[in-house]
Amino acid sequence: MKNKKFVRIVLIPVFIHMIVFIIMPIVAGLGMSFLDYNPLRSINEFIGFSNFERLLADDNFKIALVNTLVFVIVTVCINIILSLVLAQLINMFKSNKTRSLFRMIFFLPCVAPLVASSVVWGKSIFPTVNGLANMILNALGLSSVNWIGDPSMVMISIIIFTIWADIGYNVILFTAGLDGIPKDYYEAAELDGANGFQKFRYITVPLLGRTFAFVTLMTLISHFQMFAQFSVMILRNGPANSGLVLTSYIYKTAFETKDMGYASAISMVLFIIILGITMVQQKANKVDWEY
Amino acid sequence: MKLKIKREQVVRFSIFLLLALIAVFFILPYIWMILNSFKSTKEILMSPKNIFPEHFTLDAYIKVLTNSPFFTWFKNSAFITITNTLVILFVSAIVGYVFSKYEFRFKKTLFMIVLATMMVPAQTTMIPSFLLIDKLGLYNTAGALIFPTFVNAFGIYLCKQFCDEIPAEIIESAKLDGAGDITIFFRIVLPMIKPAIGALAIFTFLTYWNDYLNPLIMLSEVKNMTLPLALSFFAQQHTADLAAQMAASALIMIPVTIVFMTFQKYFIKGIAMTGMK
To answer: Transmembrane segments in this chain: where (chain B) (predicted)?
Structure first.
């Protein structure tokens, strides 16, 4: 169909909005990363690549980068594997009631505001003395763990929390994806004597391809941007900065230290990481499975 | 044959048990939150071994509702979330429709630009956005959280995918009957992409109801806060009062949880749909 006037009326405001609120901020952010920018000063000097040179010498940045990568890689791997297994188990039930009951329960934490769950876990589950986690461990005869007080435990605790809080989305997406695979494929494989693992490896995984690629990419992108739990559940980035990630470092630098030029430089690093992952993913998924 | 059925039943039952065990782990934090919210902070601290409240009390809830402008926060959250959801639904649907059914120059490029914005992390745009909002005089107003959200790339993408499935003949014949572009959009297209609109409504509602980063940057005055920001503020103000923090968390979680349980079927279908396209 053609109607220049209608297309213009719809698209021009939309693109003006995008330029103002997305494209301009990206460009401005890039520009600011070359300035010594502090909103409280009237003159903000151009300092070239100094902010990026500063990154290389900044120990906190290194800690934040390593923590972010560890958090994202470990959480996303566990999330994907666990949600795939849960989806597979849920789909073994024929009754729709059982299926939707489990899907609903696993999705429950996804509807709760992350801040609220962070408060609950930080103040009622993870505390050493009156936290539920240690009470359960003790009841099982195990010794207490200093979940968010011990620098070597902080990230593990946040990963456990994040999996609890976020896995429901992927369980639902994977159960829907599995439902889309024709049942006769499995029946044919059974006739040929395939076992459960073989069916999973040679039918489920390749045929789930598109859903799998989409879910992995979306989960990666969203986990790189996670912030609420790092800001609410642990105090001041945790002991010895053990819970400092790029998002919390950017926030702290920009809005607490007001060092916005440097914060913009860090945010560019985050942007480039996400952009890189997306591009690698796009390339890797050129092969499309049709069924 | 009989043996095989029995074995299958055993397998199915053990899977059920395993899933039930994991399900308990998922629900436990909620139960614990609610149990603690009915205790006094003293009881939580002094007798941590009490699972059920020894002295059942509503003090924590009373404290939250009387010591803080909870209903104002609730109203702020509701206003921002509902406005954002409605605007995003309308904009996404009409833009998705235009990209799906109209021919114009640079269509592919423009659509790629829309999709590309999905990958931009909030942290990259938030500093300049904050400065812009401040310049526009919107800092500390609901507008700071409403105006920047109108165009939602994911929503446009989802609506376009659904519009693609509407047969061209239906629209052509409406056109022959003399229907204008706007009429066709409201009368024909919108009803046909209802499932996408439903899914998107759920998605945007959850996103803005639960958003923490943007309110944290854009709002500073207590009376303007939205619920998630207000909760973190309240928790800092009452660090020592564990019971009040649990009650405040419960008050924030329960409304969304009830909405979710009521529309559970649509939620799950909607979320599943966003992954299928």
So the answer is: 12-35, 78-99, 111-133, 145-163, 184-209, 242-263
d(CA B80, nearest CA chain A) in Å:
15
A2 and B23 in contact by Cβ < 8 A? no
d(CA A140, CA A129): 16
- Beta-bridged to residue A35, according to DSSP, are A46
Quick check: is A207 in a domain?
A: yes
Has residue B48 been placed in a domain? no
CA–CA min distance B60, chain A (Å): 14
Cα–Cα–Cα angle for B181, B186, B192, rounded to 5 degrees? 110
- What φ, ψ does residue A147 adopt, rounded to 5°? -55, -55
Instruction: Specify the CATH number for the domain of residue A209.
Output: 1.10.3720.10
Chain B residues closer than 8 Å to A104 by CB? 261, 264, 268
B49–A contact, CB cutoff 8 A: yes
Which structural domain range is residue B183 located in? Answer: 62-276
Give A-chain residues touching B126 at CB under 8 angstroms. 25, 250, 254, 267
* pLDDT tens track for A243-288: 999 999 999 999 999 999 999 999 999 999 999 998 888 777 664 4
**CB atoms near residue A290 (< 10 Å):** 6
The CATH number of the domain where B122 resides is what?
1.10.3720.10
Is the pLDDT at A35 greater than 60, yes or no? Answer: yes
Q: Is residue A174 part of a domain?
A: yes
The tally of domains found in chain B comes to 1
In a domain, B170, yes or no: yes
Residue A272 covered by a domain: yes
* Structural domain includes residue B156: yes
Task: State the DSSP code for A46.
Answer: B
Residues A66 and A49: their CA atoms lie apart, in Å, by: 22
A98-132 pLDDT, tens digit each: 888 999 999 999 999 999 999 999 999 999 888 99
Full domain range(s) for residue A79: 59-284
For residue A289, name the pLDDT band (cuts at 50, 70, 90).
very low
Domain presence at residue A219: yes
Q: Is residue A223 within 8 Å of A71, Cβ to Cβ?
A: yes
